[in-house]
Design brief:
By secondary structure, this protein is an alpha/beta fold. It has seven helices and 14 strands.
Length: 228
């Protein structure tokens, strides 16, 4: 059974997420934004072994601890889409801009992701969706078997990601939600980058930013899947 556990990290209270199998305790970590000592302690207390670090996008609150965690555990960094390379190569500048005292190092992933890529750990498979708007290279991880997605900062409970940061585009974000997120179906649950998660159907009905929005009439256009 796939399980998700959230570790809120840094003063941004970003939802660093551990996806793991309840039987094997093997898993991956999504968006280790910082407080790596807290992350390591939590993993140890729960007996979870990681095989990779997955990044949804290149903002410091999501990627700020990735290099430190990679070095501590010897893990590959996977994602996001290559369009976020300018953000990841300037994480240290982001830290200075926000006046952060936390340890931050620029990151170059071991693998960039494309729309339609397939990621796995154990028996659990996730499809990658490229959803720009909040950040140019933002990706979402979708597990169809359990109708679950990690949407990062694309969609929140009652809101959507901000688009006033470098590379943000409000209309592009809305289009990503309309064409990539809503077609997953109303019964899909999601974890987001900050705050509580929810269900896509509830957001479609009640989220003020999604009012009147409907998925494409032809249904979801699934991209060609690339194994790896």
């Amino acid at each position: 059974m796939l399980q998700a556990g959230v570790i809120p990290v840094t003063h941004f209270q970003q939802n660093c997420t551990v996806l793991f199998d309840t039987d094997t305790k093997q898993g991956v970590i999504v968006d280790p934004g910082g407080d790596v000592d807290v992350i390591l302690q939590t993993l140890g207390e729960n007996g979870i072994t990681l095989s990779a670090i997955w990044l949804t996008h290149g903002h410091i609150d999501h990627a700020g601890g990735a290099k430190e965690l990679k070095e501590a555990l010897g893990l590959p960094i996977i994602g996001p889409h290559r369009d976020d390379e300018p953000l990841l190569s300037r994480l240290e500048e982001q830290a200075e801009r926000f006046g952060l005292a936390m340890k931050v190092e620029n990151v170059r992933p071991d693998r960039w992701l494309e729309d339609g890529d397939q990621l796995t750990f154990g028996d659990h498979a996730f499809t990658v969706l490229h959803c720009p708007g909040h950040a140019p290279g933002h990706v979402v991880f979708v597990n169809e078997a359990q109708h679950f997605a990690h949407v990062g900062d694309v969609l929140f409970h009652g809101s959507i990601g901000r688009t006033d940061l470098p590379g943000g585009n409000h209309q592009q974000l809305l289009e990503s939600i309309r064409t990539k997120i809503l077609p997953l179906g109303d019964d899909f649950g999601f974890i987001c980058g900050h705050g509580p998660g929810g269900q896509i159907g509830e957001e479609r009905r009640t989220n003020p930013y999604l009012r009147g929005m409907e998925p494409p009439a032809t249904g979801q256009l699934r991209p060609t899947t690339h194994e790896g």
